Amino acid sequence: MNLSILYRGPLASCNYDCPYCPFAKRRDPPELLRADRAALARFTDWVAATTDLRLSVLFTPWGEGLTRRWYREAMVSLSHLPHVQRVVIQTNLAARVDWLADADRAAAALWTTYHPGQVDRARFLSRCARLSELGIRHSVGVVGLPAHLDEARALRAALPDAVYLWVNAAEGHRYTAEEEAAWTALDPHFGFSVRPHLSLGRPCHAGETAVSVLGDGTVRRCHFVPTPIGNLYDGSWRAALRPRPCPAAVCDCHIGYVHLKPLGLRDVFAGGVLERIPAVWPAP
Ligand code: SF4
Ligand code: SF4
Question: Which InterPro entries match (predicted)?
Answer without folding.
Answer: Radical_SAM_STM4011-like, rSAM_sf
